[in-house]
Write a structure and sequence with these properties.
Layout lengths: L1 H18 L8 H4 L1 H35 L6 H34 L6 H32 L3 H5 L4 H4 L5 H26 L4 H10 L1 H7 L1 H16 L7 E4 L2 E8 L3 E6 L4 E5 H5 L3 E3 L7 E9 L5 H16 L10 E7 L4 E9 L4 H22 L33 H10 L7
Antiparallel strand pairs: 1-2, 1-5, 2-3, 3-4, 6-8, 7-8
Length: about 425
């Protein structure tokens, strides 16, 4: 009995010693190791995207632009300059979206309640849609920024179609390219938001008549712009006259043409009006500009003085280095109501309006000096009134007031009826 109790005591003590060994307490890292690892990895991926974006924007693209020959590789130059900012911003947005997708995707496989799990699934779907929309907007931004690439596509067909790639044509093609890119981008965005593009196109087909009636003016302006681009009656920078508008062309768009008038105002003329009206282009192919005016001399100018002055004017213009030799006319043309008219027609060799006006000013001063030397004077519209009065004619006397006549008969009667006095 003693031996058994002793063994029991020993066993009990051994149990007590075992229970007193230290037990490892759980730490924060042990409990959240997977979460921390996923978040850190997601932030690292996001940081990598941001660093790559900054390197491309600040180092790579500028280096490509400096080293690339734009004349030999114009398309690459346009694409690099056009996509520089959109691509840098798109990489940053992509980094954020990838980080969010990594965290949300990992959480969807964790033992969470239904409400929390549904939230992270929705977050993953929304983030994916945001990323796709960002890609669409980034590509659209880059293509619009490099819209001049459209004229490179027609460079091969330019000689076959005899298309002159002037500034107006380039701007018009760039505008058309931008509109097409924006329309495609809108269709892609509508598709991302759940709209049925096929049904939308079918609806537009059914409502095409209404749209055509409502937008007939815009359509007329658009096709008018096409006529102006293909026929090229003027280009940007030309001086034109059309209807009541005269000035320098500044821009040709899909709808209208902007003309800077002589007064400095900006006139916006619809293309349909320009394509259907006579246009006078004073710049395109113009090598000289015409001057046409009349010198009016007074009527008391002698005949010899008129001829002498007309010959002097002709000699002055003939020897002027800025006046064309062809088309010079100086003639005593007519006897008008108040002057003797000398018609002067000549052409200046510099067609620019500023140079033309400068030459006219110098010639006008010279014409005034010739008139002073020749002793002739210029007339202005006058009328002389001559009143002829014969010397033997007299003006009628002024009327005299009527003379009052007395009634003599009545006076005589009154005398007869008066009482007679005197001896009876």
């Amino acid at each position: 009995m003693a031996d058994s109790s002793t063994s029991q005591v020993i066993d009990t003590s051994s149990i007590i010693d075992t229970s007193q060994e230290p037990v490892a307490t759980p730490s924060f890292w042990t409990d959240h190791q997977d979460v921390i690892t996923t978040v850190v990895l997601a932030l690292a991926v996001c940081l990598v995207f941001w660093v790559v974006s900054s390197i491309l924007y600040r180092k790579v693209f500028p280096a490509i632009t400096k080293r690339l020959d734009a004349d030999k590789h114009p398309m690459i130059d346009l694409l690099v300059n056009g996509f520089r900012r959109p691509l840098a911003l798109l990489l940053k947005i992509t980094g954020i979206c990838v980080a969010v997708l990594m965290i949300a995707s990992w959480l969807t496989y964790q033992p969470l309640d239904d409400q929390t799990l549904s939230f992270f699934v929705s977050l993953e779907q929304v983030t994916t849609k945001i990323l796709r929309i960002a890609i669409i907007l980034g590509v659209t931004w880059g293509l619009v920024a490099s819209s001049d690439i459209s004229k490179l596509f027609l460079r091969g067909a330019r000689h076959k179609l005899d298309i002159d790639m002037s500034r107006s044509v380039s701007r018009f093609l760039s505008a058309v390219f931008k509109v097409v890119v924006v329309i495609i981008a809108l269709a892609a965005l509508l598709n991302e938001f759940g709209f049925n593009i096929s049904a939308l196109v079918a609806g537009l087909g059914l409502g095409g008549l209404t749209v055509a009636l409502a937008a007939q003016d815009s359509a007329a302006n658009f096709f008018g712009g096409l006529v102006l681009i293909t026929e090229k009656p003027f280009d940007i920078g030309d001086w034109i006259t059309c209807s009541d508008v005269e000035g320098t062309v500044e821009d040709i768009s899909l709808r209208s043409t902007k003309v800077r008038t002589n007064s400095g105002a900006l006139a916006v003329v619809p293309n349909s009006l320009l394509s259907g009206a006579p246009i006078s282009n004073w710049t395109s192919g113009m090598k000289r500009r015409r001057a046409d005016f009349t010198l009016t001399l007074v009527y008391d100018t002698p005949k010899d003085a008129i001829k002498k002055y007309a010959d002097a004017v002709y000699t002055l213009l003939e020897t002027d280095p800025e006046v064309s030799d062809d088309g010079l006319i100086v003639r005593f043309s007519s006897l008008s109501a108040s002057s003797l008219d000398i018609r002067v027609i000549f052409y200046t060799i510099k067609p620019a309006m500023a140079d033309h006006l400068r030459i006219l000013e110098r010639i006008n001063y010279a014409l005034l000096g010739l008139a002073e030397q020749q002793g002739v004077g210029f007339a202005y519209p006058t009328q002389s009134l001559f009143i002829e009065r014969p010397e033997d004619s007299q003006l009628p006397d002024s009327p005299q007031p009527p003379i009052e006549k007395q009634d003599t008969a009545k006076d005589d009667t009154s005398k007869d009826n008066a009482p007679k006095t005197g001896p009876q």
